[in-house]
Design brief:
Length: 473
């Protein structure tokens, strides 16, 4: 019995409702779980209150079915923990005849309903189905909002991590204005996508969005690209040419890698920002333009100012508002969502049929460091879709750069923090080595205990015991 944490499946449909069944009698718990699984629920079974509480701490559930009287933690405590974890979780309490007053107390504390023993599977299914009705509506609304956002909102800006939600919230406030925006972030983080999202959600969206990479051109060519030129301005200037500023009039001009702009061009750009006029190369006639400037860089512009290669006054004109895009390592929680987004994108582009991705492949992708950020992940997923031949993306579809035969770098080379590298583990007690490997694998999976147990090849109950034994968090 497994559990997904995403709100939608790979094809974009709402995921199944997730149910946790908690009962001291593990046989009875499994019987209830199997009966619910036949209706399409994703069910996780816990053989007692302690295990149920551990599941609630590690995972999220839509419905919890719990026995009221158990040997360790009782059903009222499970109810409390479920509501603390997610107020919208519905809890169904199973009680014997002698504990009905306690069941009434559970209802007063927020339980959805209670069922009496001996439990009738038909009644259980009906209660879970009734509890799930509102949950399914919520999931459908989430999916509808997601599709509306893809069609009309911040298309391409994908993420549900706290870091990306903060970025998207900032974009929503910035987009309707006319402020200049400086977008900062490492190479491959998606700065141009963010710029496009700002334009598409601004009053200028019906006018052109024009992008120019300032690092890719020499000084003379860059000025001609920006401001245009007149015939005879330089060799090969056989006719007048409109520059990016004039072409983007009324719309948005995105200056990528603005930190690499030559100093002479910086001076001219500053003059345009101050006056709202451009002058074509070789001309003395100013032309008024109405353009919103968005710029991006992966350089530290304050350091560039200190080094004398970037103008302080231009920097402050460009950064009326600043957006910092986190690296993929900083927003690792978004990797599963990005994988699904790119799989759908490239199956459509390359006319392929992909039914899903194996857990082994997902773990490899989650374990990789991604120095090239989202762009690198995007290219890897496209490569996997293109080379796949069995409609399931697996480790054999991974490109060589991910080295599918190698162990995760965090374990093989150096452990993070103050933990030793692999060479330093030789001669140390096995318990200490086990503690280090469990701790590092937990970090690798972002604390996901199910994935950690799977990667280590041990049962989840064994992992819980080891975590408690070694006092890991």
């Amino acid at each position: 019995m497994s559990q997904s944490t995403a709100d939608t499946t790979l094809d974009g449909t709402p995921r199944s409702v997730r149910v946790l069944v908690v009962d001291n009698d593990i046989v009875h718990a499994r019987t209830m779980g199997e009966g619910l699984e036949r209706l399409g629920y994703h069910v996780v079974v816990a053989g007692g209150g302690n295990e149920g509480a551990g599941r609630l701490a590690a995972e999220s559930f839509d419905v919890v079915v719990t026995d009221l009287m158990m040997n360790d933690i009782g059903g009222l405590e499970i109810l409390k923990k479920a509501k603390e974890a997610a107020a919208e979780t519905e809890v169904i309490v199973v009680t014997g005849h002698g504990t009905i007053p306690s069941a009434v107390e559970a209802m007063q504390q927020g339980a959805f309903t209670y069922l009496q023993k001996p439990l009738d599977l038909t009644h259980l299914r009906a209660a879970v189905e009734k509890a799930s009705a509102g949950i399914r509506l919520r999931l459908q609304n989430i999916e509808l909002n997601r599709r509306l956002d893809e069609r009309f909102g911040f298309e391409g800006v994908v993420g549900s991590s706290p870091q990306m939600l903060a970025v998207i919230e900032r974009l929503k406030r910035i987009a309707p204005t006319d402020a200049t925006v400086l977008i900062q972030g490492a190479t491959g983080t998606g700065k141009e996508l963010v710029a496009q999202a700002i334009h598409q959600n601004s009053p200028r969206k019906k006018k052109p969005f024009v992008a120019l990479n300032c690092a890719a051109l020499s000084e003379n060519i860059l000025e001609s690209e920006l401001f245009g030129h007149v015939r005879g301005a330089f060799t090969d200037a056989s006719s007048d040419r409109v520059g990016k500023f004039e072409y983007a009039d009324g719309g948005t001009l995105f200056l990528d890698e603005v930190g690499d702009m030559p100093m002479a061009t910086q001076i001219k750009l500053l003059r345009v920002l101050e006056s709202g006029e451009i002058t074509r190369v070789g001309s003395n006639q100013p032309v008024r333009v109405n353009v919103r400037i968005l710029s991006a860089t992966n350089r530290d512009l304050e350091e560039a100012i200190a080094s004398g290669v970037f103008r302080s006054d231009l920097y402050h004109r460009l950064k009326v508002v600043t957006i910092v895009i986190p690296s993929l390592q900083e927003r690792a929680a978004d990797i599963p969502l990005l994988i699904e987004h790119f799989v759908k994108q490239f199956t459509k582009r390359h006319h392929k049929t992909i039914k899903g991705m194996t857990r082994a492949a997902r773990l490899k992708l989650a374990a990789f460091a991604w120095p090239g950020n989202v762009r690198q992940l995007r290219n890897v997923i496209e490569s996997m879709v293109v080379v796949d031949c069995d409609e399931t993306l697996d480790v054999d579809d991974l490109p060589l750069e991910l080295d599918p035969d190698a162990a995760p770098a965090a374990v093989v080379t150096e452990a993070s923090g103050d933990e030793p590298g692999i060479a330093a583990l030789v001669g140390r007690p096995l318990e200490e080595i086990e503690r280090i490997f469990i701790a590092e694998t937990l970090k690798l999976t972002g604390g996901n205990r199910e994935q950690t147990a799977d990667m280590l090849g041990i049962g989840e109950r064994t992992l819980y015991r080891k975590i408690k034994e070694y006092k890991l968090t």
